[in-house]
C-alpha cells in the first residue's frame, strides 16, 4: 500500500493539481512512521483490555468501573483537548505536536503500573487520553498534505491500520507479559516504545506547509476561526451522517473491546484452558489462559481488522473515482453483516468457532476507516482539515469511546444482577462468595457480559442508516 501512496505522491501533478511536497522515498517513510506512532497509540490504549480480569481481582472493581477506565475517563479529555490541539495544528509545527503527545501518553501508560486503587488508575488513564489527543488530527492533516487526492482514502486507511495492529500487539504483549510478570509490568512494557517514536517524530518528521504550492493562499486562509469551520460544516450533511454512523460503529467496537477477552474467560473457561495447554505444549512454553486469549484475539482479529481497514480504503478509492457514492456503500453493507455474525459468535458453544467468527467480524468492522476519514477530509478546504478531523474524532470518540465501554459494562452488571435476583446475591456481594454462591456468581457474570455484547451490537442498524443516508449527499458536499 505504501508503494501506492508513494507512487501517487511522486507523480508529476497535472496542471492545477497539488504538488507533492517531498520525494517518493521520504513520503513512504512518513507514512510508516505515522503508522508506527498510531500503532503505539492503540497499543497503549487497548492493553488494558487483556488485563481487566487481573485488575478487577486485585483492585476489587466492577464491570462498570472497568468500562469507565476503558472509555469515559479516557475519552473526555481525549475528545475535548483534540479540538484546541487541532486548532494549534492548523498553524504550528505538526511534527512537534505529534512527538510531544507521544511522550505524554507513553509516560502515563507506564504510570498505570504504579496504581494502587481505582482513582489512581483513573487519573493515569485520563493522562493517557490527554496525550493521545494530539495524535490523529495533526496526523490526518499531514497525510492529506503528503499524498494526492486520488490516494487519500487509501493513505488514511493505511494509517488507520494502526487501530487493529495496535490492538493486536496490545492483546498479545499484554497477555504474555502479564502471564509471566503480572499486569503492572505489562503497562511498563507498553509505555516504553513511545519514547523512541516521540524522538523520531520531532527530529525526522518534516512539516510540509512551506513546500506546498498553495502555501501563500493557505497562510491567508488559516485565519478561519473554529466557529467558521463549524458553520461551514453545518451546511455539509454528509459530514454529520458519517460522523453519526462512525460514532455508532465506534460505540460497538470500543464497547466490545474491554469485555471480549472477559467473555471467553467467563463463558469458555475450561475450553480456553485446554487450548492454552495444547498450544503451550506445541510451542514449547508455559502458555496460560490469559496469554492464549490474547494471542488468539490479537492474531485472528488483529490481522483480519488490518486487512479490512486496508481493503476499505482501496475499495473506496477504486470505485469512488467514478462515483463518490461508492465510498459509503461498503461501510453500510458491512454494518449490517456484522450483526448476525457477532451474535452467533457469542452464542455458540465452541470457543474455536467463536474466535473464527470474531475474525470475520473484525474484517467487516474496520472497512469504514478509509471511506469515513477520507470523506471527512474531502468535505473541508485545506485550511480547515485539522479542525474538521478533530470535530469528527470528537463526535466518534465521545460517543463511541466515551459511552461504549461504560454502557456495555453497566449492562453487563445489570444483566448479572437480574440473573442473580432470586439468589439474594448481587455483583457487589459476589466478591466474597464461596461454594454454590460463587458458582452462581460466575454463571451470572458470564451471561451478563454475553447479553451486554449482544444488545450493543444491534446498534449496527443505526450505523447502516447513517452511511446509506450520506450516500445521497456526498457528491454535492466534497470540495477538495
Automatic annotation (TrEMBL):
A Pfam family it matches: MFS_1
Localization (cell): Membrane
Superkingdom as given in the UniProt entry: Bacteria
Membrane topology according to the record: Multi-pass membrane protein
UniProt GO cellular component terms: membrane
InterPro entries given in the database record: MFS (IPR011701), MFS_dom (IPR020846), MFS_spinster-like (IPR044770), MFS_trans_sf (IPR036259)
Any one GO molecular-function label of the UniProt entry: transmembrane transporter activity
PROSITE patterns with a match to the protein in the record: MFS
Transmembrane spans: 29-48, 68-89, 95-119, 156-177, 183-205, 239-257, 292-314, 326-345, 351-369, 390-411, 448-468
Protein name: MFS transporter
Protein source organism: Phenylobacterium kunshanense
Amino acid at each position: 500500500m505504501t508503494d501506492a501512496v508513494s507512487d501517487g505522491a511522486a507523480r508529476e501533478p497535472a496542471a492545477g493539481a497539488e504538488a507533492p511536497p517531498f520525494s517518493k522515498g521520504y513520503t513512504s517513510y512518513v507514512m510508516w512512521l505515522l503508522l508506527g506512532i498510531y500503532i503505539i497509540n492503540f497499543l497503549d490504549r487497548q492493553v488494558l483490555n487483556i488485563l481487566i480480569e487481573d485488575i478487577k481481582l486485585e483492585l476489587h472493581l466492577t464491570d462498570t468501573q472497568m468500562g469507565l477506565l476503558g472509555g469515559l475517563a479516557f475519552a473526555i479529555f481525549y475528545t475535548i483537548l483534540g479540538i484546541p490541539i487541532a486548532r494549534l495544528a492548523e498553524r504550528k509545527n505538526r511534527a512537534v505536536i505529534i512527538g510531544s503527545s507521544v511522550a505524554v501518553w507513553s509516560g502515563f501508560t507506564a504510570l498505570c503500573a504504579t496504581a494502587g486503587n481505582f482513582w489512581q488508575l483513573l487519573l493515569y488513564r485520563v493522562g493517557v487520553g490527554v496525550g493521545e489527543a494530539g495524535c490523529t488530527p495533526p496526523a490526518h492533516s499531514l497525510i492529506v498534505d503528503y499524498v494526492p487526492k486520488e490516494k487519500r482514502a487509501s493513505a488514511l486507511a493505511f494509517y488507520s491500520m494502526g487501530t487493529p495492529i495496535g490492538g493486536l500487539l496490545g492483546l498479545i504483549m499484554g497477555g504474555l507479559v502479564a502471564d509471566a510478570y503480572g499486569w503492572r509490568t505489562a503497562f511498563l512494557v507498553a509505555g516504553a516504545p513511545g519514547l523512541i517514536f516521540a524522538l523520531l517524530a520531532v527530529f525526522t518528521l518534516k512539516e510540509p506547509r512551506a513546500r506546498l504550492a498553495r502555501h501563500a493562499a493557505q497562510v491567508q486562509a488559516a485565519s478561519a476561526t473554529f466557529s467558521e469551520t463549524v458553520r461551514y460544516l453545518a451546511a455539509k450533511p454528509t459530514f454529520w451522517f458519517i460522523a453519526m454512523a462512525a460514532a455508532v460503529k465506534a460505540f460497538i467496537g470500543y464497547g466490545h473491546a474491554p469485555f471480549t477477552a472477559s467473555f471467553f474467560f467467563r463463558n469458555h473457561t475450561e475450553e480456553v484452558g485446554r487450548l492454552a495447554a495444547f498450544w503451550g505444549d506445541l510451542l514449547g512454553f508455559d502458555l496460560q489462559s490469559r496469554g492464549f486469549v490474547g494471542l488468539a484475539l490479537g492474531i485472528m482479529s488483529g490481522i483480519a481488522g488490518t486487512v479490512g481497514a486496508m481493503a476499505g480504503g482501496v475499495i473506496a478509492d477504486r470505485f469512488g473515482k467514478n462515483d463518490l457514492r461508492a465510498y459509503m456503500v461498503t461501510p453500510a453493507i458491512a454494518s449490517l453483516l456484522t450483526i448476525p455474525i457477532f451474535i452467533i459468535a457469542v452464542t455458540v458453544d465452541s470457543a474455536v468457532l467463536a474466535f473464527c467468527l470474531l475474525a470475520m467480524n473484525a474484517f467487516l468492522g474496520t472497512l469504514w476507516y478509509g471511506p469515513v476519514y477520507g470523506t471527512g477530509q474531502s468535505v473541508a478546504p485545506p485550511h480547515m482539515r485539522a479542525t474538521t478531523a478533530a470535530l469528527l474524532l470528537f463526535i466518534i470518540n465521545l460517543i463511541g469511546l466515551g459511552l461504549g465501554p461504560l454502557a456495555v459494562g453497566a449492562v453487563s452488571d445489570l444483566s448479572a444482577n437480574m440473573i442473580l435476583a432470586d439468589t439474594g446475591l448481587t455483583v457487589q456481594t459476589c466478591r466474597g462468595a464461596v461454594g454454590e454462591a460463587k458458582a452462581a456468581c460466575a454463571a451470572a457474570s458470564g451471561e451478563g457480559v454475553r447479553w451486554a455484547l449482544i444488545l450493543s451490537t444491534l446498534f449496527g442498524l443505526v450505523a447502516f442508516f447513517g452511511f446509506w443516508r450520506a450516500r445521497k449527499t456526498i457528491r454535492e458536499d466534497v470540495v477538495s
